Structure to design on (751 residues):
């Protein structure tokens, strides 16, 4: 992958773009390149993966003057190239970026719909003096923009935009409200006011100072698909075949591709199917924890040994999370609710040290194959509301949560059942997520009075409702839940804060075989029971992998990847992490003005007095959210990002400079 | 120990357990703490544990319901019943 940036302005654009690229040099340290024309400049920080020698960016079509910069990969570029060649296109490189450029020349602004990949692309067309930005369907590659009367700027990361002193730096309070409700910002919101995220599956065109954003792809709600009439056995065989194709496409690279291996069914399936396509042993990477409740190493070992991968396990200690956390937030550019991104940043650092630039990873399986407990919970709640006298109600709830460690305490099931009783007959459009979001929102009590005042007229649930596509309101609760998980947790956290940012922070590209839109279209056309069979999640994957993986993996209950939270920062009760003093002291809290100093002080007091293992999700989440927001404020609002970028610029090698002097 | 003493102890516990509850006065006595968002399910379990330890009584799983354990006054009543039955 790479980092891209650009600016439409009357002022020194090239100098500005150089600084923007320097700010995101970690995304693509191999080489830098820019294009500068009248009123526009854009460029790339490149991580060379395809056509290492001739794949420099930007690429310009000499005949039309159209220029492209791209972050990401077009996985079907070889097939697209063949088609374009038959239509008379001549290629100068082997790179997929040139394929995207020529596809634009062939099809115009509708070209993204032909791409299968993960990408953020900018194309400048001097013929129409228009700039087109487009982003992949799931939001794997990030893309942000800022627009004012005299300036339009875009970049892969927010910090690149903030190198420009003409872009105001103010935290987006609505996004903060959203993170404390949904765990992620929603819609176009980013952590900075006025900096927008281009939504996945959308293109933005700026022409004559007019900006239009339109989707080129729509979420394939199951109810709107032509129903597949395959039997379960046929569907399973075809699913494995499609997944294998998706993996094969994502193994293509001119550099070695490795894989993450958590020990769960998703990454194990990827490893199993990828190994069958490779001539040499696959390099696999895992995180291990000393604390058993987080650790999955026995399962990782089973799969690594079975497929004789060249396996590397990185041991993550509590102190590693503490030491890494500030850097993690510098990369997430968003408050987070768990510390789980930190170990993944440590892992990608190891991958980078080993000279591996690309890893396959299993995100997306839980969304496309209904793997999360929220889907099962929704199903059980609806069953119970439909059959209020059913004697199986308590058993269903117990089965639902049996895999959670807290359910080793049988009381937890009763409390959960009791708590869900009142929600069974709700008609909310967010039936599946209401309980979670309402629990999350309790931590908004930590907001300072001034922050609460500025949000009095704002209701994040209303905004969420306004963002739902029309079809959303007519589909089943499970289909709604699948969509909500995809546009919140997957896009706003797993692919960004825990995905792209943690990997590209160490110049490593993640590829996601389960997030292939053709695979999603296939699975969403299948009957729901093929994926969620009674309460068995990812049924089709578990059955399909029986011939490849042992039962210890295919029958393994879901294990939620998490990392130590409060305890990582309070290893010694009397001497907590330096981050606690630096960011959560009364002085630090007063400086940002975002949180109630008294209440945060009480939270810290509770932590100091409590046995850490007895602190619940709510306290852990509040601590991580508040700490990450405080660090974020320093990183994005207080730091002199421009000066940092200027220093970084000295080590950036600009290999490509393209100029267009006249129209 | 009477109902008022038990209520005072329970309120003290909640103020400690939930940092966002400012003062004891802010806690309604007759509403479900779970519904109010003052306790989450983990918080309920912790509270049951506290009650059992503090008064040396046993709360049955079937008693952890909105009807029996849903508010401070209901909890105090349940605790008093348990204490009385222990004495008899």
């Amino acid at each position: 992958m790479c980092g891209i940036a650009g600016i439409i302005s009357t002022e020194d654009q090239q100098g500005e773009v150089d600084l923007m690229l320097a700010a995101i040099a970690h995304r693509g340290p191999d080489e830098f390149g820019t294009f500068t024309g009248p009123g526009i400049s854009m460029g790339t920080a490149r991580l060379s993966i395809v056509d290492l020698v001739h794949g420099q960016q930007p690429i310009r079509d000499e005949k039309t003057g159209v220029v492209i910069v791209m972050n990401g990969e077009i996985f079907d570029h070889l097939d697209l190239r063949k088609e374009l060649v038959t239509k008379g296109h001549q290629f100068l490189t082997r790179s997929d970026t040139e394929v995207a450029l020529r596809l634009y020349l062939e099809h115009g602004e509708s070209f993204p719909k032909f791409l299968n990949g993960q990408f953020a692309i900018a194309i400048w067309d001097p013929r129409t003096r228009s700039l087109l930005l487009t982003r992949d369907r799931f939001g794997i590659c990030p893309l942000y923009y800022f627009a004012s009367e005299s300036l339009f700027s875009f970049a892969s990361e927010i910090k690149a935009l903030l190198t420009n002193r003409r872009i105001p730096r103010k935290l987006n309070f609505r996004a903060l409200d959203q993170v404390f409700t949904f765990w992620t910002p929603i819609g176009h919101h980013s952590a900075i006011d006025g900096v927008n995220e281009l939504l996945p599956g959308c293109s933005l065109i700026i022409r004559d100072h007019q900006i239009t954003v339109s989707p080129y792809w729509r979420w394939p709600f199951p109810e709107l698909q032509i129903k597949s009439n395959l039997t379960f056995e046929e569907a399973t065989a075809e699913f494995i075949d499609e997944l294998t194709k998706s993996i094969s496409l994502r193994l293509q690279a001119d550099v070695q591709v490795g894989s993450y291996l958590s020990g769960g069914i998703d990454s194990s399936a990827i490893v199993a199917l990828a190994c069958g396509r490779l001539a040499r042993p696959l390099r696999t990477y895992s995180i291990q924890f000393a604390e058993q409740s987080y650790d999955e190493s026995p399962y990782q070992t089973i799969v690594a040994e079975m497929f004789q991968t060249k396996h590397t396990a990185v041991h993550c200690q509590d102190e590693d999370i503490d030491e890494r956390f500030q850097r993690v937030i510098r990369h997430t550019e968003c408050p987070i609710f768990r510390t789980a991104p930190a170990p993944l940043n440590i892992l990608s650092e190891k991958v980078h040290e080993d000279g591996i630039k690309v890893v396959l990873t299993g995100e997306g399986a839980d969304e496309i194959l209904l793997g999360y407990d929220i889907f099962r919970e929704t199903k059980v709640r609806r069953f119970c509301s439909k059959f209020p006298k059913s004697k199986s109600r308590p058993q269903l709830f117990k089965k639902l949560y049996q895999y959670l460690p807290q359910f080793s305490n049988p009381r937890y099931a009763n409390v959960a059942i009791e708590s869900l009783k009142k929600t069974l007959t709700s008609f909310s459009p967010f039936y599946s997520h209401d309980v979670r979001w309402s629990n999350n929102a309790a931590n908004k009590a930590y907001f300072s009075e001034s922050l609460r005042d500025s949000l009095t007229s704002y209701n994040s649930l209303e905004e969420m409702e306004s963002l739902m596509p029309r079809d959303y309101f007519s589909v089943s609760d499970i289909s709604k839940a699948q969509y909500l998980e995809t546009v919140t947790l997957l896009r706003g956290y797993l692919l960004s804060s825990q995905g792209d940012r943690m990997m590209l922070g160490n110049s490593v590209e993640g590829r996601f075989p389960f997030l292939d839109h053709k695979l999603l279209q296939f699975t969403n056309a299948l009957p729901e029971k093929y994926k969620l069979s009674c309460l068995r999640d990812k049924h089709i994957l578990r059955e399909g992998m029986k011939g490849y993986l042992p039962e210890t993996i295919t029958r393994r209950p879901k294990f939620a990847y998490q990392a130590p939270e409060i305890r990582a920062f309070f290893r010694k009760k009397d001497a907590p992490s330096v981050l606690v003093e630096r960011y959560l002291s009364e002085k630090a809290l007063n400086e940002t003005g975002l949180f109630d100093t008294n209440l945060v002080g009480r939270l810290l007091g509770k932590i100091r007095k409590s046995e850490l293992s007895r602190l619940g999700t709510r306290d852990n989440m509040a601590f991580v959210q508040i700490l990450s927001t405080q660090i974020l404020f320093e990183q994005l609002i207080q730091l002199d990002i421009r000066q940092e970028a200027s220093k970084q610029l000295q080590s950036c090698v600009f290999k490509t400079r393209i100029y267009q002097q006249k129209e | 120990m009477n109902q008022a003493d038990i209520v005072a102890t329970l309120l003290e516990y909640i103020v400690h357990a939930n940092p966002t509850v400012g003062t004891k006065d802010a806690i309604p006595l007759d509403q479900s703490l779970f519904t109010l968002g003052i306790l989450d399910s983990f918080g309920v379990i912790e509270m049951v544990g506290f009650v059992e330890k503090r008064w040396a009584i046993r709360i049955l799983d079937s008693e952890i319901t909105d009807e029996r354990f849903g508010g401070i006054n209901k909890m105090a009543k349940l605790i008093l019943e348990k204490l009385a039955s222990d004495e008899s």
Q: What stands out?
A: The CA atoms of residues 259 and 271 of chain A lie 7 Å apart. Residues 222-368+486-554 of chain A form a domain with the Rossmann fold fold (CATH 3.40.50.620). Chain A has three domains: 2-217, 222-368+486-554, 566-638.
